[in-house]
Amino acid sequence: MTSEQPADRPVPVRLREALAKVPAYSPGRPPAPVEGMTAYKISSNENPFPPLPSVVRAVADAAATMNRYPDMGVVALTQALAEHLGVPAGHLATGTGSVAVLAQLVQITCEPGDEVVYAWRSFEAYPIVVALSGATSVQVPLTADARHDLDAMAEAVTDRTRLVLVCTPNNPTGPAVTGDELRAFVAKVPRDVVVVIDEAYLEFTTEESVPDALAFYREHPNVVVLRTFSKAYGLAGLRVGYAVAQEEVATALRKAATPFGVTDLAQQAAIASLAARDELMVRVEQLVAERERVHAALVEQGWDVPAAQGNFVWLPLGEDAVPFAQACQARALTVRPFAGEGVRCSIGETEANDRLLGIAGEWLHSRE
Ligand SMILES: *Cc1c(COP(=O)(O)O)cnc(C)c1O
């Protein structure tokens, strides 16, 4: 920066008033080094496994043509997804991560002042994309056991509601909604209100009662299923997610997409990942086994941990959330605190999980 451009000069441009209501996303911080310890980041629900060689190869090959724009229609990936899911290609819309597809969903449904109903605490991107659009968030508190209160959510729907978001399993608390709960809920929501079922962690679910939301999309034209390659498929850094919706909604979503948003590297990586699905799902099984181990150990230590159906566990620490995260940071372990509420810890490398269990155990002892 030169001396003629002071950083604090007032800017005489008009920005939207809605920005004042947009909360800042708190990104998972990079792990802080501690002398003599391997640092681990278990704060962003990332997949700890490095990409498969076949996926790295696909990306390296795609890199050779990065002077070109990607296929704007995302044709090959859409076709592969359509076959994998058993849905028409016209029912798919891709985006730069499912967060971007969610922003498109708000854009295609909400005028300023319209309402979006979702549970809270839930995914922190929800209030951001809603506020940015000028729509109004209607946050319905979770139940005491950190689950969606779908009855209360159905009651919160008004004639201003355009969108309802169901996050299952819920980030950051962990429980998933059951098929019965979802069936009763969808039956109560007016047919002209879009119900988004955000299944970012579907592949990690193990409870029998957890439905595959595609069954709901098939039965109810207002249901949209949101999925991502960021978590189970391990492509968080490449940004690719998608929605499955009826043709009219999917077409609107494609209109609202950033042109050429999903890069060729991301498209090729996603195609290669679908082809390597079996190999990737073995890793998911290992992460699920680790999650079960960590969850059981925490319960054994005396923690009141909610059901964990994603690749993370929730410690309801309340006012101790930030101090606990600091204690983890001092041991080169980055977790994600939600001040005054709790701490979300992703299932990471075995050593990271063991370190978390060590800190969690000591924490309870020090308070006895
Ligand atoms: C991680 C996550 C996503 C996926 O985000 P991407 O933009 O696809 O990386 C979506 N929804 C929830 C609830 C998540 O936790």
UniProtKB/TrEMBL annotation:
It comes from the Bacteria. It is an enzyme of class 2 (transferase). Its cofactor is pyridoxal 5'-phosphate. The modification N6-(pyridoxal phosphate)lysine is found at residue 231. PROSITE patterns: AA_TRANSFER_CLASS_2. The keyword Transferase applies. The keyword Phosphoprotein does not apply. Gene3D superfamilies: Aspartate Aminotransferase, domain 1 (3.90.1150.10), Type I PLP-dependent aspartate aminotransferase-like (Major domain) (3.40.640.10). It catalyses: an aromatic L-alpha-amino acid + 2-oxoglutarate = an aromatic oxo-acid + L-glutamate. Residues 42-353 form the Aminotransferase class I/classII large domain. Keywords: Aminotransferase, Pyridoxal phosphate, Transferase. Its EC number is 2.6.1.57. Signal peptide: none annotated. GO terms for molecular function: histidinol-phosphate transaminase activity. Homodimer. Aminotransferase that catalyzes the conversion of aromatic amino acids and 2-oxoglutarate into corresponding aromatic oxo acids and L-glutamate. Belongs to the class-II pyridoxal-phosphate-dependent aminotransferase family. PANTHER family: HISTIDINOL-PHOSPHATE AMINOTRANSFERASE, HISTIDINOL-PHOSPHATE AMINOTRANSFERASE 2. This is Aromatic amino acid aminotransferase.
